[in-house]
Structure formats: C-alpha cells, structure tokens
Amino acid sequence: HKPFQMGSIIFKNVSFSYDDKQDVLKQTSFDIQPGETVAIVGKTGSGKSTIINLLLKFYKANRGNVTIDGVDINEYSTQELRKNIGYVSQDPHIFAGDLFFNIGLYNQNNHDQIITAAKIVGADKFISEMPLGYHTVLSERGSELSSGQKQLITFARAIVNNPSILILDEATAKIDSESEEDISTALNKIVSGRTTIIIAHRLNTIKNSDKIIVMDNGQVVEEGRHEEL
Ligand code: ATP
Ligand code: MG
C-alpha cells in the first residue's frame, strides 16, 4: 500500500477489550479531518491511550474499524504505519547516544533532515552550543538536558520523517514556565500542516485545538470546539 498522504482518521464503532472480558472502548466513533488538531480529554481510565494503542497497531480492535485516508489500518504494514505517524509519548525518552541518534534514530545519518527538524522545534541553538554539537553523546535519561530541552528533542524526533499524522500524549509533569513557552511555540509549529491528536492536560492546548473529544468510560460523550463545550 502507498503510504497515506492526507491523514484523515476515522474510528467507526470500535470496541476493544484487553482481557476479553470488559470492553474499554465501547462502539467508539469519531472523524478527524486532514490537518485538524484534535484534543482528547477525559478521566483516567476512560480509554484515551487505548485509542492511540489501536491507531499505532499495538493492539487490534475487536469490532468496528479504524481507517486512515479511507484505508483500513490493517492493510498498512505496521512498519509503514508507524513511519508515517510521529509519536510523542507522555514520558520524554532520551537514549544513550548522540543528538543525531536521539532525533534521527535509525535514520541518524540524514543529518540535514535532523538539523531541519531541530530548527523547527527550536532545539538547534542549544544543541549547537554543546561541546560537540550534534555529536555530543547524551547519557541514558539525558541528565545533560533540562526537562524542557528533552521535550523539544522528542518533538524533533516525532517530525523528522515529516509524517502526515502526529500523536502527542501530553506530559502531565510540571515544566518551568520559561520552557513552557518554548514548548508551546514548538508545539504550534509541529502541528502545522499535519493531522494531530493530542491527549491534552493543559488548558492552552485544549483551547488551541480545532476539536475536543471527551471520553468517558470507553465512549465519546461530547465532541466540539472549546467554546461549544
Ligand atoms: P489515563 O488518563 O490514566 O492515562 P486513559 O484514558 O489513557 O487513562 P487507558 O489507558 O486507555 O485510559 O485505559 C482504559 C482502561 O483499560 C483502564 O481501565 C485501564 O486500566 C485498562 N488498561 C489500559 N492498558 C491496559 C493493558 N495494557 N492491559 C490491561 N488493561 C489495560
Ligand atoms: Mg493514558
């Protein structure tokens, strides 16, 4: 299959259970248009991360279907699917390796692409100021970096292959207000031109999204713009 281009996402009557006993998604349906930024909110355990788990094919829906650009996700290979979806997990992960590896991973030799991604998120400056620049080797956990800088690295990593879909599980941890601004700026840049799903905790993220999906107990209970809810 050709990799998807537009990034429209449709969940139609999706049900899913981790244990074959209790459904944690119950006939969940929603549509996301190409280029939209959608915030998913809801209580703990309501099924937000499960939606992401299905979309990235970590698990398979029991009933219903998930399509991207009109094609059932089961028809995309897992590798192809994940290559075209940028993913930022809740906990910014840093690897033992240099900055080229931390951003590019297995495409660590695409230096131009990596530097472009770092520039977009505003990480190029602090990386260039490090002793060996992009060749500086970070320790596992990245103790050389502030929590805000680590977050920017994970943003650069998510967009390095220019994916049409971006998924962000927003960190709940408090970040100092100075980095908070850098992160918001970076966030606005990386979502631009992509279909984005953000599991949102910050009011600002929610306000800036095109649509909000409210999950409760495995179901979409409300959907609309911030002003409408
Ligand atoms: P949070 O805000 O706490 O991250 P969430 O909305 O992301 O919550 P999910 O992680 O989707 O919630 O969990 C939905 C339900 O599925 C919960 O009851 C949870 O305990 C259960 N669950 C999540 N992951 C697994 C798993 N890997 N195995 C079994 N049950 C799971
Ligand atoms: Mg979750």
UniProtKB/TrEMBL annotation:
<feature type="domain" description="ABC transporter">
    <location>
        <begin position="9"/>
        <end position="229"/>
    </location>
</feature>
<protein>
    <submittedName>
        <fullName>ATP-binding cassette subfamily B protein</fullName>
    </submittedName>
</protein>
